[in-house]
Amino acid sequence: MSNEDKSSGLNGRLVFAIAAAAVGSGFQHGYNIGVVNAPGKLIQEWINYTDYTRSNYTVVPTEATITWIWSVAVSVYCIGGMIGGSLTGFFAEKFGRRGGLMVNNIFALIGAILEGFSYSAESYEMLIAGRVFIGINCGLNAGLAPMYLSEISPVNLRGAVGTMYQLILTISILISQILGMENIMGTETLWPYLLAFTAVAVLYQVPALMFCPESPKYILITKGREREAER
């Protein structure tokens, strides 16, 4: 490590913790904002076919019905986000900043499973429910990740580290658009896997966070362990 790194407080453990929190959480947030855009037409066609089969091929769904179902599937992500955002304080104090991020991955995993199996189960209700759980996950990420990053960073690096979440979020929107292209995963059979791909971030973040420190502010103020917080 160079003298500059020592004086700035930058070290390998801090870089690893920043990557675990920012990449894992920011990816979930950005990816799920953009992932439904590219395969939107295919999903609407699937909703149309699913609704038609449920009527024993007797009632053709109207365009207004399909649009309404699709609108709900897209917009419930925001409702989930509001729920997750309102729970940030509770999770931060109950589980800690790092612990809250780890527990939050449960919502992402449930959402990925529901979205991924919605096609084979012929249930757009599962797709809608999955978007709610993903929204809760992203709402919590938006509060917990910046909080954790700011509290583990030295004062002189706090501004730069705080921007990492937004940077990863923007990059992950781009990734979702690329993966959603027709010649990659934006096909009639692969779009469920495209939505479920968000589980990859869970598989990365949970093991990574196990090797990261908890926020010293949480250890000191909430747990009252002064010596451990100082360390």
UniProtKB/TrEMBL annotation:
Keyword field contains Transmembrane helix: yes
Transmembrane segments: 12-31, 68-91, 103-121, 127-149, 161-179, 191-212
Keywords from the UniProt entry: Membrane, Transmembrane, Transmembrane helix, Transport
Membrane topology term: Multi-pass membrane protein
Annotated Gene Ontology cellular component terms: membrane
Chief location category: membrane
Keyword Transmembrane helix on entry: yes
Domain Major facilitator superfamily (MFS) profile, chain residue ranges per copy: 18-231
InterPro entries: GLUT, MFS_dom, MFS_sugar_transport-like, MFS_trans_sf, Sugar/inositol_transpt, Sugar_transporter_CS
Annotated compartments: Membrane
One MF term in the entry's GO annotations: hexose transmembrane transporter activity
PANTHER family registered for this protein in UniProt: FACILITATED GLUCOSE TRANSPORTER PROTEIN 1 (PTHR23503:SF8), SOLUTE CARRIER FAMILY 2 (PTHR23503)
Protein name: Major facilitator superfamily (MFS) profile domain-containing protein
Organism: Artemia franciscana
Lineage: Eukaryota, Metazoa, Ecdysozoa, Arthropoda, Crustacea
